[in-house]
Specification:
heterodimer; A: about 230 residues; two-stranded antiparallel sheet; B: about 200 residues; mainly alpha; 3 domains; 6 helices
Chain lengths: ~230, ~200
Amino acid sequence: MAPDLLWTLIAFFLTILVLSYVLGDNALFRVVMMIFVGISAGYGAVLLFYQVIMPRLITPLMTAPVADQPGLIIPAVLSILLLFKLSPRLSILGNPPMALLTGVGAAIAIGGAVSGTLFGQISGTISPFDLSGLPSAGSAISQLFGGIVLLTGTVCSLAYFHFGARKKGGVNTGAQPILIQILSRIGQVFIAITLGALFAGVLAASLAALIERLDFLINVLKPLIS
Amino acid sequence: MRAPLSTTIAIGAGILTLLGFFISVEALTSVRSLLIEWAVLLAGVAGLVAIAHLLSVHWRKMTASRNRNVTSAFLLIAFGITFAAGMVLKPGHPTIQKVVTHIQVPIEASLMGVLAISLTVAAIRLFQRRGGWMSVLFAVSAFVFLILGSGFLSSAANIPVLKDILAAVNTLPVAGARGILIGVALGSLTTGLRVLLGTDRPYSG
């Protein structure tokens, strides 16, 4: 049997076994899922070793001049300490590298949220109100209308996620201020529309994948039948 | 104070990285680069630790005296073969790439295909169990954007009035998504600040 045909048959049977889930959860589907997780984990481990650990730790430790090697000892020690996380009794030794990872991760998240999302999204929301350089009054009105809808939707959607409650006489009443209640009602409409649009996008993508898989099955079966 | 060493490392590393991000001073930028370099390496090692933990859980499930899970053996065998072959041949080898294109991709695409059916069933169940104006609005929105996304109305985009209406309709989900994105960013900001202030210590477990 030609190797390419063997690989195609493997893909064919795996596709059928995964699609068998449509008829209900079954043992063969679960076996395929276990194989999928095992292969993904194996491939992921190989990638981590060859693309992260090898070039960033092992190769520099083996090839760097002796004078540069003390700078590599800290990450090497932290990496070894992190391996202690596998042992329940010694896992406390893995806390310092986890702390460094969490601290740097938190800082990157803050930087990304501020400069990547907050600035970008806020400037995107207010940019339609810049009417300079528009060719006609009609297009200015159209852009302004779009900007007002965008601003209203953004502010109201944000208000929907406001969970603060009003205090009365120092006691938390559990009720939101009336303005927030009105805004969050409008925000609910925008969020329902957004989730509907997202649902449509995911459904369209998954339908495309289903059609591609069915097309693959037909193309494999066609030569066998004819 | 609980876990003083780890807390000091987290706060120190976080603040130095953040300062290097916003203040353009040579020393701070190089410290930030070094810390990120270490964090990337540690994230890689953490990934390996997570995979090793996954394997140990499935080994325990497979060898348990009660409620033994035989399917875990398939996971361990699949991992062993892929890992051994990958370590010997290296990730770029054509045989390893065949594993990706003929095993991983078909399973992922088929799962995506199953998702189409599951989503349709879930949408029908949503209507059966939780009616109301939100469900109706969600369904109408999904239907409208499914039609818009299919390109069915692409020829109508040249008609002046219809073009403006389509542009207005397309603005609605952008507004909601922008609100959600800003909310997520504010949430990330708050969580990050709680870690940097030492209020949250997820590493001291």
